[in-house]
Design brief:
There is one protein chain. This protein has about 170 residues and is of the alpha/beta class. The chain has helices at about 15-25, 35-40, 45-70, 85-95, 105-115, 125-145, 155-170, and strands spanning about 5-10, 30, 75-80, 95-105, 150. The longest helix has 25 residues, at about 45-70.
């Protein structure tokens, strides 16, 4: 029914949760690019940011995504929220498979990430203003990169999953 499906979108959009559910439903592997970076480096993302800065982390992200493009087997890939910032990643993701933009409002993001301490870009910041700034910077890029957009505001994971499955069924690869 499907090849590779890539989930992009802002922090808190549900990429990891939806990705796991979608992979289980499609019976293909689930891959989280951030988790691959953590497993390859042996340290968590905040530590990578602390030692190498965002630029170092983004270079690791480019390498991981380039490596994943070489894999021929279908998968569900959840990317980090900033993966689309690099044009190399955008090209790789679109070439890998169908890119779905999980869109949520800043208000919804606030509810979901308010207490998350594993997000370096949100530490020591006015959370709402930081999320609004990131949305202004990234939402247009998400739109340009994705083949399809689904809004998750006010929806449970199973509702978003059903929308994605219906879309994939109606638009086979």
């Amino acid at each position: 029914m499907t090849g590779t499906v890539i989930l992009i979108g802002p922090m808190g959009a549900g990429k990891s949760t939806i990705g796991r559910l979608l992979a289980a439903r499609l019976r293909i592997p689930y891959v989280d690019s951030d988790q691959l970076i953590v497993s390859r480096t042996g340290v968590d993302i905040p530590t990578i940011f602390e030692i190498e800065g965002e630029a170092g982390f983004r270079e690791r992200e480019v390498k991981i995504i380039a490596d994943l493009v070489e894999q021929a087997n279908p998968m569900v890939l959840a990317t980090g929220g900033g993966a689309v910032l690099d044009p190399r990643n955008r090209a790789h993701l679109r070439r890998m498979g169908r890119v779905i933009y999980l869109d949520i409002s800043v208000e919804e993001q606030l509810k979901r990430v308010r207490h998350d301490r594993n997000r370096p870009l949100l530490q020591n910041a006015d959370l709402e203003n930081r999320l609004r700034h990131l949305a202004q910077q990234r939402n247009c890029i998400y739109q340009q990169t994705a083949h399809w957009r689904v809004s998750g505001d006010g929806l449970r994971s199973d509702q978003v999953l059903r929308r994605i499955l219906r879309h994939l069924q109606a638009h086979p690869a």
